[in-house]
Specification:
The structure is a single chain. The chain is of the alpha+beta class. The chain has a single domain, classed as Roll (Nuclear Transport Factor 2, Chain: A), CATH 3.10.450. The chain is about 45% helix and about 30% strand. The chain is built from four helices and five strands, in the order ααβαββββα. It has a five-stranded mixed sheet. Strand 2 and strand 3 form a beta hairpin. It is elongated. The termini are far apart.
Length: about 160
């Protein structure tokens, strides 16, 4: 009897572990699709499929609405400033309802960004994003990127030269 109980508990644990691993892989596929469709092809049509109506981007500035509309608005602003931007996934790790992405962006500053007129300079950067998913959609995201460093580099190249 005791061996049966141990076997039952172990098999339930194994089933739960497999389900959790499958869920993490599904979440990774969804986030990878976000990067391929939105951050490589700039196809905003898929945003409603991938981003939940209650989506919160914790890195987004005040005034950007939540949900797919805010997602499109925020990346529309970035796309206008850096029209050739391409994000490359360097690492992707998933566990439970979270997916972590370490990414690299290559871009040229061709439009106004944070009040800085276009400089034509390289605006490449790296960052880390953490996504939380629920029911097959992205519901939250936190991003760490050196925006201050990028802004300072662009400001320095936009400053008039001193004689």
């Amino acid at each position: 009897m005791r061996q049966c109980l141990v076997f039952l508990v172990a098999s339930q644990f194994l089933v739960a572990s497999v389900a959790s691993a499958e869920n993490a892989q599904q979440n990774k596929r969804l986030v990878r699709r976000l990067y391929n469709e939105v951050f490589v092809k700039w196809n905003f049509e898929v945003v409603d499929e991938l981003v939940a109506p209650e989506f919160i981007g914790h890195e987004m500035p005040p005034g950007i609405p939540p949900g797919p509309q805010g997602f499109r608005e925020f990346y529309g602003i970035l796309r206008a400033a850096f029209p050739d931007a391409q994000l490359t996934v360097e690492d992707m790790i998933a566990e439970g309802d979270r997916v972590v992405v370490r990414w690299r962006s290559r871009a040229t500053h061709r439009g106004e960004f944070r009040g800085i007129p276009p400089t034509g300079r390289d605006a490449s950067t790296t960052g880390i994003a953490i996504y939380r998913l629920s029911k097959g959609k992205i519901v939250e995201r936190w991003v760490e990127v050196d925006m201050l460093g990028l802004t300072e580099r662009l400001r320095a190249s936009a400053a008039p030269e001193k004689d």
